[in-house]
Design brief:
Growth Hormone, Chain: A; 581 residues; three-stranded antiparallel sheet; two-stranded parallel sheet; disordered C terminus; transmembrane transporter activity; MFS_trans_sf; membrane; 18 helices
Length: 581
Amino acid sequence: MEGKMSWSVADTVDYKGFPADGSKTGGWVPAALILGIEMCERLSTMGIAVNLVTYLGGTMHLPSATSANIVTDFMGTSFLLCLLGGFLADSFLGRYKTIAIFTVVQILGTGMLAISTKLPQLRPPPCNTMAISECKQANGFQMGILYMALYIISLGTGGIKSSVSGFGTDQFNDKDEKEKAQMAYFFNRFFFFISTGTLMAVTVLVYIQDEVGRSWAYGICSVSMFIAILIFISGTKRYRYKKSLGSPIVHIFQVIVAAIRKRKMEFPSNVSLLYEDSPEASRIQHTDQFHFLDKAAIIAEGDYEKNGCSAPNPWKLCSVTRVEELKMMARLLPIWATTIIFWTTYAQMITFSVEQASTMERSIGDFQIPAGSLTVFFVGAILITLAVYDRFIMPLWKKWKGKPGFTSLQRIAIGLVLSAMGMAAAALAEAKRLSVAKAFGDNNSTLPISVFLLIPQFFLVGAGEAFIYTGQLDFFITQSPKGMKTMSTGLFLTTLSLGFFVSSFLVMVVKRVTGTNDGQGWLADNINNGRLDCFYGLLAILSFINFGFYLLCAIWYKPQTPKRVLQMQSVVNGNAAEEKC
């Protein structure tokens, strides 16, 4: 019996609800099955997003700025719905069921999109003129079907992404040194799998969209997700399932409501008098930041139920640990806010940058590079940066500083700087492209300038993503409370969502401020008649200003020190004092 118990993994159960046996569940094989779902999700979502702007302009005959906003709104909604997926996973469904259900939702969405691009009744008739403004735009019904398909896909993406990384880490026991090392390896490879899925999307899938047909490409997305869900379900008996700790959103509101109710009460003379009922091993030390929230832990008359229950009403009295969990989440918010601008610059790589590429010379011999496939340089920059960081920078940094690589905040800072430089490079490249367009007139469908001029902006922003995505994922998971990991992952993914929405907002404002009655301005219907270089320059300036705010927030941020670490430090300091005596 004792030997059998030694294999059980704390806080986890198997598919039957019994304590998980470490020898039969979890580890790398189940985690790999979960990674397959994420890779196929990236293949579908990015395969649609990176080339959608050309479909909206070339087939649905929509203006340039409108097409860009539809793409950014689609991507923004996908990541915003991660909060809904995280809430459902934490409160009702669990991560396994959330992934399974929302994968089916995404299969339905991509299938519907394949049908909408196949049927001629669901798109406007083709036109023979080069001016999109003179073509018949898609009507309300045609756009309604397209929107429905896109937002069903968004719902599926939100449910999958909110849970897949957390469910993957559930397969490893962080109290076992061997499995803890495997978990670190899982985090390092998680982003690699995402990038691999994106690479396949911007090369193979975009080529199929342009050369074979979009309905075929979107059909492949549905089939790949269907195969992925079958593989995922096949591992049901091998997975470890974390026990639910209740909805973190409810816990947060309980602290806020209790603090507001007791806002007029005086603080006790000693913080030890504040209420605490959490087990000793899981307690979080009291901190002085956001001091007003501590009032939720002041014991007052009426906090306990009248029926004689020993537990207090959680809407009236919360433990210090529960209050500190909210404080930990609140400390993340300034860092969260200052990373949104990166994803605004990222949005340009799959919208306006693709439109730039569609006007430029893209031939290599007899092969014509699809405009959407230019993002291969973006993904290539991510993979190269990850490889260089893993193989060269981390070993050198460890030898020089004694630390295994940059901290999460340092990686985020590097990503912000690289993205600002990317927008500056994009402004210079667009200025050159516009000068060629002006010299050769607006009627040229393909300008005599190489598309490889855009490589610096793709490479700089791509390298920036390699640093900022891994930095954000590490920061939001490691610096959040134990019971709020899924929620903090959703919080991280909302920076992507808001970045896309900010992009849509900026496009709307810039178009309104700089536009004229004939549709010209910085963001003209035809980008050859606009000043996209000025728009990129504006983003570069905003990015550098935002970086200054980020530095202030990073200096202000103070990570929570676990109680066990504090106790070990006290023991070490005590031993040192005894040695001196």
